[in-house]
Design goal:
Number of strands: 8
Order of helices and strands: HEEEHEEEHEE
Largest sheet: 5 strands, antiparallel
Structural class: mainly beta
Distance between the termini: 42 Å
């Protein structure tokens, strides 16, 4: 009985909206790992250097993005400057060695939508982002499936007009 109650309290719900916007924040970040022994240390210290980002809104090319969208329809910013040897060495502590600079790519998806008089912004995934990108030009209403405790958007389905 307790398990059933817990499942009911954390179950998913749905929302229907005609006013929405999907964003994908794409970013590049240079990082360097530091440790006394990089090959044997499972938890090296990580230093972050330069970062650049681009905010994709509804699939449109953002200012400062590279020439073309990638194979997933995402626009990326220009690369941040690679950290120099001097910058890497400045952050080294005594007895530490520095790893090679690594360029990380990251994407954070969000969906902002209105239901009644309320506006909500929730994290989402690539599939929802793409569904919104396709529906946005015609403003097709969407049925949203929300995640546990309504803290994310798990699915977006067009509702025929």
């Amino acid at each position: 009985m307790i398990l059933l109650t817990a499942l009911t309290l954390t179950s998913c719900s749905t929302a229907t909206t005609e006013d929405y916007e999907a964003t994908a924040l794409t970013s590049y970040t240079w990082q360097v790992k530091y440790a006394n022994n990089l090959t044997n240390n499972p938890q090296p210290r990580v230093e972050t250097f330069a970062t650049t980002s681009a905010l994709n809104q509804n699939g449109l090319k953002p200012p400062g993005a590279v020439i073309e969208a990638d194979e997933r329809g995402l626009w990326w910013p220009t690369l941040p400057p690679r950290p120099s040897v001097d910058e890497i060495e400045q952050r080294k502590r005594p007895q530490e060695e520095a790893g090679r600079p690594q360029l990380l790519k990251n994407v954070e998806y969000q969906l902002t939508y209105e239901v009644g008089d309320a506006q909500k912004t929730l994290p989402t995934n690539y599939e929802v982002y793409r569904q919104v990108v396709k529906a946005y030009p015609s403003q097709t209403p969407l049925q949203l499936t929300l995640g546990v405790n309504d803290n994310s958007v798990e699915k977006a389905e067009p509702i025929p007009k």
